[in-house]
Amino acid sequence: MRLLAPERVLTWTLVIASGAVGAVHLAEPILFGHVVDALALTRGGGGHGPLRYIAAWSVLGVFGIAASVVLSVLADRLAHRHQLNAMQNAFQRAIALPASYHTGRGSGAMMRSVVAGSEAMFWIWLTTLRDQLPAVFGILLLVPAGLAMDPRMAAILALLAIVYTASNVYVIRRTAAGQRDIERYQSDVSTRMHDVIGNVSIVQSYTRLLAEQTAMRELTAALLRARYPVLTFWGVLTVLQRSAATLSMVAMFTLGAHLVKTQRLSVGEVVSFANFAALLIGKLDQVSGFLARISQLLAPVGSYFQLLDERPNPVELPNALHLKQVMGAVRYESVSFRYGEPGKSQGVSEIDFEAKPGQTIAFVGPTGSGKSTTLALLQRMLTPSEGSIYIDDHEIRTLSLTSLRDAIAVVFQEAGLFNRSIAENIEIGRPGADQTAIEDAARLAEAHEFILEKPGGYDFIIGERGAALSGGERQRLALARAILKDAPIFIFDEATSALDVATEAKIKRALDQLRRGRTTFIIAHRLSTVADADLILVLEHGQIVERGSFSELVAQQGLFARMVREGGFNVPEADTESAPVMHVAHSR
Ligand SMILES: Nc1ncnc2c1ncn2[C@@H]1O[C@H](COP(=O)(O)OP(=O)(O)OP(=O)(O)O)[C@@H](O)[C@H]1O
Ligand SMILES: [Mg+2]
After folding, report:
1. Helix orientation angle between 435-444 and 471-485, rounded to the nearest 10 degrees
2. Most buried one in 130, 196, 517, 571, CB count within 10 A?
């Protein structure tokens, strides 16, 4: 309801219209009773006849219809507006949350929180405003009206209302746990579906169609099994409520017959009461159905608000410094970071090094040694558990996130492309960049030529994660995007996949262009990139085990020298001229 605060006028209009609809619904049975009594009198030759009641009824009818129309149009608009707002808010929150949160929950579950949550709220808003509010008004008005007419008959109605309410509350309580299970299964289904559809080529290539179908069927069967007991409860409730309704009708007619016989009530009044009862039962059924649905929607709404309550991490200090001119000096002081709980988890520890403005630092080391992790810390994608990182002598935690992230252009190991056009993907580097700037960046990244060969050129839509491009093309687009960003610090996390000699040479050329005049960190899998670095850091098991220039490291005869000797690097173009690339045939 707090969400409705900005729309006070609209909300009041809705409340008043609901009141009007409720009142009209209530007036109808009263008029009906009067018409019956008037008809009886007319038959006996007396009275004014039912005409004025019928006239009043028509006027009320028109009024009621008008109020209903106002109500449903306004409620519909308001609910749609709020649904989209709710979705927007959740989306906004979701994309601000750290990648680790997304990894933990899975994108399917995230999507479900956003979409199912806001749809649930849409339904609640719409039906509350359009149907339930008038129903509740109607029920509230029925009580005094009934009491005024005959307290004995009204008591039966009151009893009925109590039975409805109590049984509803009971069933909602009893099914709450089951409902939470259902939501968990539903979230699992979403997560799995997202995962499988996202990996459809693997599913087909590994002929997993049947296996995935079966797994999904098992999951949905579990969902259904969780749902059955809850459905049974609601089914039993309906039977109970219907029986109570029938019983109360019978009781009312019996009592009514007796009261008419003893001349304490007119036939018209009994008719009014019967109509009251029918009206009340209708409204109670409506509210009861609404509550049943609400109890199903509580879980998605809950997970929606849980998402909204997540605080984005890392937090920015209130007086964070907005770094304007960045020279590009970077210093790590005993930086450690652990994934997951301490003890058996992985990460990096005691990372110490310094990069002067304009230098190139290369990170090498076996796969999983912590190279990507080390550099993820620089943009605060992860926050160190110990130690500090400085840019131009500012501890990065004291900087505003925007200025920190603006100062660093990253080519990630996975290109990370959007299902948009090539131009739009590059433009992310510098929003608002014109076509010339985009093309220049693409040229520098050696991507311009392949782009022109695509249908539509720069307007070519590259598919989810760039699925319509080759690995090398994806990497060059990511490079073009970073080039366009033109930041003082540059991180290049080389894709591990080997590229052909020509493409590799192209990327190397682009890299050399880009390195000029900025601090560059390269996670290298190729000898050529390492050779030019000012400093090479060799990582193993999350620690720097060797450091120095290429020749120093080779002379040390340690891990680096071994990696070079044993072909731990992809040998670049120049070195392959004398020794042609060997294609090893793997035999099973
Ligand atoms: N989100 C994560 N949660 C838990 N562990 C992780 C996560 N990301 C990486 N790791 C683990 O941390 C270690 C370091 O990973 P990192 O990605 O930094 O390696 P890397 O040196 O970049 O390897 P590669 O050369 O294969 O890219 C690995 O053992 C990896 O499994
Ligand atoms: Mg990596």
Report:
1. 120
2. 130
What is the pLDDT, as a whole number, of residue 228?
Answer: 93
Q: How far is the CA of 415 from the centre of ligand 2 (A)?
A: 12
* Residues in contact with ligand 1 (CB, 6 Å cut-off): 100, 103, 339-340, 346-347, 365, 367-373, 413, 496
Residue with tokens 């003890």: 343
pLDDT tens-digit map of 157-174: 888 888 888 998 899 889
Phi/psi at 92 (5° precision): -60, -45
d(CA 271, CA 257): 11
Name the one residue in this structure whose structure tokens are 């996130």. 401
**Domain 8-183+228-309 is of which CATH architecture?**
Up-down Bundle (1.20)
Residue boundaries of the structural domains of the chain? 8-183+228-309, 419-486
Amino acid identity at 308: L
Between CA 471 and CA 474, with CA 473 as vertex, the angle to 5 degrees is: 65
Strands lying side by side in the sheet with 489-493: 408-411, 489-493, 519-523, 360-364, 535-540, 543-548
For ligand 1, the distance from its centroid to the CA atom of residue 496, given in whole angstroms, is 13
pLDDT of residue 585: 36
* DSSP H or E stretch at residue 363: strand 360-364
Nearest CA to ligand 1 atom 22: 372
Contacts of 37 (CB under 8 A, 6+ apart): 266, 267, 268, 269
CA of 371 to the centre of ligand 1 (A): 8
Q: Which residues pair with 540 in a beta bridge?
A: 543
Residues (pLDDT < 50) of the chain are: 572-588
Cα separation values, 176 from 186, 236, 303, 306, 545, Å: 15, 16, 15, 18, 55
């009862």: which residue's tokens? 277
Give nearest CA residue, ligand 1 atom 5: 339
Instruction: Report the candidate in 391, 225, 219 with the shortest Cα–Cα distance to residue 322.
Output: 391
